[in-house]
Amino acid sequence: MDSLPRDFASGALFNPQAPCVSLYQRTHRTHPDNAGDPIQFGNLLKELEASLARQYSAQEIEPLLAPLRRLASDDRFWRYTTDGLVCLSAPGFFRAYQVLRPMPNLAIVADSFHLKPLLRTLQSAGDYQVLEISRDSVSLYEGNRYGLRQVELADGVPRRASEVLGTDNTNLSDADAEKFMRAVDRALLDHHTHPARKAPVILAALPQNESLFRAVSHNPNLLDVGIGASAQTLSIEQLRERAWELVEPLYLQRLAELVDRYGAASGRSQADSDLASIVQGAREGRVEALLVEAERRIPGRIDAASGRVEYDELANPEVDDLLDDVAELVLRNGGEVVVVPAERMPVDSGLAAIYRY
C-alpha cells in the first residue's frame, strides 16, 4: 500500500491531470463480513466506468481503471483489508490506501481528487499513533476512540536493530540502542508520523527505553506522557483504552479551541461561514484555518479562472464536493484544515473559516 502521509505532505494529491477517479469503500477485517468486499468494489468500479463513459472514450478510460481492475482480482489483498479503502487514479498516477477509519462507499469522477474523507484520516483532531519501541525492535499502531490497528511499516523503516547495526546481538549497549532509535525516528518521520498529520504520537515502552527514545527523537507530535508499558503486555483493546485516556482531553481541548477561535475571529470580522466568500478568501491565501463538517457534501465546482461557485450534481464527471475543493485551496496556500463532527461545528453551513487578516 502507498504512504498517505508522505503523499499528502509532498502535495502529490493536489495537482493531478484530469480526469480524476476517486473510489472510497467501507471494508472489513474478518470473515464473513469481508466476503462481500470484492463484490462492493466491483459495483463501485462499474459506477466509475459509467460516469467516465459520459464524457470519455474507451481508450481514455481503460488506463485509468486498469490499476483498479488489477486490485479487484488480487485475492491476497482482499484477505487482509482494514476498515476502509481509498483508490485515486488519474493519467499517469495511481494510489491505493488502506485506512483505519470506515469510509463511505463513493465512486466519483471529477477534475480533481475527492479528498475530504482522506483529510479526515490525516487532520481529524481525534486520531493518534502508538509507537512501541524497545532497544532492538519497533511497531507502530494507528487509532481513534473507536479502534486501533497495527501499521505495516514502510520499506524504509527498520524493524530490528540488526538492520541498522549489521549484527544480531540482542545485548545492545546504550550507544547502539540510541543509534537504532535515531534511525527509527528519522524513518518514521519520513514515512508514517509526518508533522503535517498533527496526530499525537504516544510511546508504549518500558521506562528505560522510553527515556532513550525521547532523548534522540525529533518528532514534534510526540506526547510528553506515554503509556508506561510495552504494548506486548497489553491486548489491542487495552492499548486503545490507555491511549484514548491520554488523547481524549487533547481532542476535546483542540475542538473547543477551534470553536473559540472562530467566535473571537467573528467578533473582529475575521471569520466567515459563507461558501462563496470563503472560496475567494482561500484563493487569496487569507484562510488561516478551515473547519469542515465531516459528513457534509455540497456538489459543485469552482471556476478556475474567476473563482465563481457553480452548483451541480456529483454524477457530472467534472463535479466534485465543493467543501473538498475549498479545503484543497486552503491547504495549497498554507492554511490548516480540520474535519469536525457535525455536532461540534459552530455553524450549520458545512464550513467555517478563520482569516489571517
Automatic annotation (TrEMBL):
It comes from the Bacteria. This is Peptide subunit release factor 1 (ERF1). It comes from Melaminivora alkalimesophila.
